[in-house]
Amino acid sequence: MCRWLGYFGEPIRPEELLYVPEHSLIVQSQRSEQMAHPLNGDGFGLGWYGLRDEPGVYRSPSPAWSDRNLREISAQVESPLFLAHVRASTGTPSQQTNCHPFRLGRWLFVHNGFINEYQRVHRELLLAVDPELFDNIEGTTDSELLFHLALTFGLRDDPVGALERMAGFVEQTCERQGIDTPLQMSVGVSDGERLWAVRYASGPEVNTLYVSAEAHSVRELYPDRERLQHFSDETRIVVSEPLVNLPGVWHELAPGTALVVQGGQDEMRPFAPRVPAGV
Hints:
By secondary structure, this protein is an alpha+beta fold. The protein contains eight helices and 13 strands. The chain has a seven-stranded antiparallel beta sheet. It has a six-stranded antiparallel beta sheet with strand order 5-6-7-8-12-13. The longest helix has 18 residues.
């Protein structure tokens, strides 16, 4: 499994979430508290939106805790929206092209989870990807394939619907092969304007996912915490597991939930996989 986080709000330096909190993403790469296997050392990545239309991406197959370049970049860059990920491989190699976030144009994608018995259905799923997207697939992970299936099923026009169709297609494909509980996923997706997060699994075991409370509520709860005071009212942080152990700061997303983080009112709705029309 993996750990990831997404930030939306006023521009901040990514180091504020990657390194500074007592249970930061870098700490989680070494000792996750909500995974049976606490180590996420098979690579990492940071994707951020800045001065260009296309987001910047820095990925490496080395453990996040040992990469000095990540520390340098995250201390100098400021971004209003970024995704970061630390990887624990479920069987595919530790190489740069298998590290998240995955990118196409303005879109970024991170994933925690797996397709059950992936090698049995890899070819069939791969052949369903839109041929125009095929050259963008550089690695061998089920995560990157899930991204391109979502793009194939309309991610750029209807993000939550496309993720539902992607999940429905994977479940249908696996079920035809007699594979139980095909899909486990928490997903983060962004186009630079919004951040979408989904928590879902085909079976009863569902990977964790949390979102921060409204920033003004957090400031009222902890007026003496100086670090919390500068976050804007628009700030939301989506995380695989909490970065700080402060009651009232984190709300766990229910399984089968899609969250849209955006300027103004955020949205939360049920997430229900469905088979794409014509498949």
